[in-house]
């Protein structure tokens, strides 16, 4: 099979052929249906401590644009539904070709124009790859933020300004060392949905504690247009790089908010 993608001939409906777990019972994304979630007063706020990176890359890997520091950068995530400390691995985006689509998770069937994923791995593992393969839903902790069109996002601007430099698949640039990743996050990481799920791209491993924030981040129309100028490995606009919602089966979605 041609490498996986989001086109007619290699998109989500084909992924099960190489990754049978695509039809598993703990797949992501899902539609977050407010009438079916359950408030859990035990869910505390999360704490993300992101330290400045000496050498980080921003790259186009053919199916997303991704910020990736060198291994072992000391940034970590704790709290919320997490029992242990998680190390930061990378962040990347999913988006659509217009403002009515683009996010992976949905809220009562509503899609946002984009979704930002901050990926972290369980620090009891020796590496990210071991965490992905560790079995069970605690290998990775992924923070999901919906993006909506509004004011310019100054914290994301150093990243969206780099997009023209990684327009083509397989290209990358070094990110200026004064880039402040912490500034992207809201001051307090409260009000989130959390459930056990999977990677939303092959290998679709069911190793993810998902934490999806209720409050979207804003980006300007110009910043959204920057994403829409990115080209995938087939030379087409990358927009539409989102997987449709998967069945919830017998999973519970908990919320930290009433
Ligand atoms: O569902 B996501 O898009 O958001 C959260 C998330 C985290 C990671 C990925 N996939 C990665 S890192 N694959 C490469 C790889 C996979 C497995 C072993 C080594 C290397 C996709 C997503
Ligand atoms: Zn993602």
Automatic annotation (TrEMBL):
<feature type="domain" description="Alpha-carbonic anhydrase">
    <location>
        <begin position="2"/>
        <end position="257"/>
    </location>
</feature>
<dbReference type="InterPro" id="IPR036398">
    <property type="entry name" value="CA_dom_sf"/>
</dbReference>
<dbReference type="GO" id="GO:0004089">
    <property type="term" value="F:carbonate dehydratase activity"/>
</dbReference>
<keyword id="KW-0862">Zinc</keyword>
<comment type="similarity">
    <text>Belongs to the alpha-carbonic anhydrase family.</text>
</comment>
<dbReference type="InterPro" id="IPR023561">
    <property type="entry name" value="Carbonic_anhydrase_a-class"/>
</dbReference>
<dbReference type="InterPro" id="IPR001148">
    <property type="entry name" value="CA_dom"/>
</dbReference>
<dbReference type="GO" id="GO:0008270">
    <property type="term" value="F:zinc ion binding"/>
</dbReference>
<keyword id="KW-0456">Lyase</keyword>
<comment type="function">
    <text>Reversible hydration of carbon dioxide.</text>
</comment>
<dbReference type="GO" id="GO:0005737">
    <property type="term" value="C:cytoplasm"/>
</dbReference>
<keyword id="KW-0479">Metal-binding</keyword>
<dbReference type="InterPro" id="IPR018338">
    <property type="entry name" value="Carbonic_anhydrase_a-class_CS"/>
</dbReference>
<dbReference type="Pfam" id="PF00194">
    <property type="entry name" value="Carb_anhydrase"/>
</dbReference>
<protein>
    <recommendedName>
        <fullName>Carbonic anhydrase</fullName>
        <ecNumber>4.2.1.1</ecNumber>
    </recommendedName>
</protein>
